[in-house]
Amino acid sequence: MDGLILIDKPAGITSYGVVDRIKRKVKKTRVGHSGTLDPQATGLLLILIGRATKTVEYLYELHKEYVAGAMIGVRTDTQDIWGKIESQESANRIKREDIEALIPRFCGKIKQIPPMVSALHHQGERLYKLAKKGIVVERKEREVTIHRLNLIDFKEGEHPEARFNVICSGGTYIRTLFADIGEALAKGATLNYLRRMKIGNFAIEKAISLEKFLEESNAGKLESLVLPIDEILSFLPEVMVDDPYRILHGQPFRYLGPVGLFRILSSDGLLLGVGRGENRIGRPVKVLADFDDL
User: Fold this and answer.
1) Which phi and psi (to 5°) does residue 174 adopt?
2) Coil, strand, or helix at residue 20?
3) Domains along the chain with CATH numbers
4) In this structure, are residues 102 and 187 in contact, taking their beta carbons and an 8 Å threshold?
5) Cβ(32)–Cβ(41) below 8 Å
6) Which of 1-10, 21-30, 190-199, 234-243 has the least mean pLDDT?
């Protein structure tokens, strides 16, 4: 079994925990996901089955859309409300217009320092595991893109709560975005709500709950939940070739079409893999079919 399952992740379980639950049903097949959601976050999780796990590197860079909330005047060690509170102060003078005035500063290309509590690696170990040991290491600043940052709700109070719609590049930390906005307000801020709505063209409306997945798989309907690999990579242009065996052997080929990455299809529409091309010469960079498929 190969393909994609769109899961609406519930709160209170890690992304790996979702993968593990699905793996028990799929059995003897590789299962992975294309982007971690924190345990208390909810929303869209792309679950990759079988050969589809080979496509994960092409999904990381897709833009993400979130509905996310921030509490002003609170700082935590994890940059979210589920961490240890490091400081808090009254922010009752912060108004909606103060937040809106800051939004342009945090749109477009911005710099972020990834949080310690994250799944990034440092010398072979996850940062969050180091953080649990009380170890803090230097993290390199990196550039991300905020395509849209709209304030959709604001509640005044001792610790005002702001809710945003965010569209951003892959690799963006919403926790860090809010922490940086809090520092710009000179009050601090921490994330208190996060729901992922879209990854590329995949939307939460097409996802099923983990509970529904388990019900359907127990009823023998697992295969009906799996989208084909070709749909995973539908955002890439396609190039059709006459000799699929050349692709499966990893050999270069002549073509007319787009420069850069593209899907390689056989003349009868079978997805053979991903290619990269320039000057009318294409090269397979990821083979997704095998000889038994031909």
Assistant:
1) -65, -35
2) helix
3) 3-61+201-230 (3.30.2350.10), 64-199 (3.30.2350.10), 236-293 (2.30.130.10)
4) no
5) no
6) 21-30
Q: How far is CA 120 from the centre of its chain?
A: 13
**What is the C-alpha to C-alpha distance for residues 227 and 232, in angstroms, rounded to an integer?**
8
278, with CB counted inside 10 A (0-12, 13-18, 19+), is exposed
- Per-residue pLDDT band at 113 (split at 50, 70, 90): confident
Phi, psi (5° rounding) for residue 144?
-130, 170
Cα–Cα–Cα angle for 96, 101, 105, rounded to 5 degrees: 135
Taking CA atoms, 157 is separated from 160, 162, 179, 220, in Å, by: 5, 11, 18, 51
Q: Which of 118-122, 188-192, 216-220, 282-286 has the lowest mean pLDDT?
A: 118-122
Percentage of residues in the chain having pLDDT higher than 70: 93
- List, in sequence order, the alpha helices (H) in 8-115: 15-26, 56-59, 96-102
Query: Taking the alpha carbons of 249, 250, 254, 259 in that order, is the dihedral positive or negative?
Result: positive
Q: What is the pTM of this model?
A: 0.90
Q: Provide the b/e sequence for 205-216 (b: ≥16 CB within 10 Å).
A: eebeebeebeeb
- 249, 235 contact by CB (below 8 A): no
Would you name the residues annotated as active-site residues? 38
3-state secondary structure at position 117 = coil
CB 190 within 8 A of CB 178: yes
Q: Is the pLDDT of residue 121 over 70?
A: no
pLDDT greater than 60 at residue 112: yes
Q: What integer pLDDT is reported at residue 115 of this predicted model?
A: 74
